[in-house]
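Re: folding output
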Amino acid sequence: TRVAGAGNAARVARPVDRGRRRPRRSCARRRLASPRQAEGSHPGGGQVELHGARVLVVGASSGIGRAVALQAGAAGARVACAARRAERVQKAAAEAGNGAVALVCDVRIAEHCESVVAQTVGVFGGLDALVFATAVDPLARLADCEQQLWHDVLSTNVIGASLVCRAAVPYLAAAGGKAVFVSASSVGRPL
């Protein structure tokens, strides 16, 4: 970027266009990543077809994970909805339709991480996409956070994500699949 004009020293102009424009991609026009792309499409971009894709959504009982599971099901994907809260994840799977299954999984437990992938592969015969959309976000003052809270945050957000992904990698690689990690948070008050 460069400063625009001597009289407007506080204003910053947009970067100089050197002919290297990135294609604009509207979020509304893009669909979830899937290895089952249309013939001849670029593997890293463009629209993809979810119909028939085998998708595991971890964190599907609420929030973004639930929305992803419902959208994937509506697009024709075969969805495995996984989360800690059995009643909520069963409800999400029922709403996702298209033969979606509900799996109970606490990503803080290593055996659950391996089991949820194995169960998904057992039901669908493979795995084309993993969406990890679960997270612990402590909305508390730093001074009020105990050590156990930070163990839960790291166990869920980092270790759990890596264990689920590690279990899924052989199946994703075999199918030319993708792993997507989604998280969102907001801070309700300052530190």
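--- second protein (sequence, then structure) ---
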Amino acid sequence: IFDMKKIFTTSAMLFCLLALQPIQANSQLEGVTVPDTRVVDGTTVKLNGLGLRLATMLKVKVYVMALYLETPGNDAATIINSDEAARIELHMLRDVDAKDMRKAWTEGFEKNYQGSADLSSELAALKAATGDLKEGEVLAFDFSGDKVTVSSSGKPTGTIEGAEFRRAMMSVWLGKKPPNKEIKAGVLGMK
């Protein structure tokens, strides 16, 4: 015979235990699944959006970009000028050699950086921190104050300091001439 009081008590305890477990939601684009939060220098950042980098007239799929922000939003200028914690992840959908990535950094800075500072040494450091990337690898940028830490598949490859560099780096995707309009709209959560 069933003891209803015991069944109810056990069920209630099980429900409470399950309710206390953290639930990690995920988002997905082009087969890439990312968590809805990350931690940058002890600060939780939330997924703001996902965007797809398309290249050439043929719309070749290069990577899925995930933008994480301490305070999510859809105003590009506010995000570019923020000094809050942030993270950018580039989830590679194909192999890209270092030469092509380094060329893309130069073009992105030239097209989108609105400041007047000479960032040639910072750009050189970014290029040095960027190697060949294989399909499935992740190139990440952690923004903490005026410091940007670059990592490839979880291994740090360089740290670049400076508020102007930080703004320039964010501008590559959020500036007036992003690599493609879909990536900007996606990471701003406007898709």
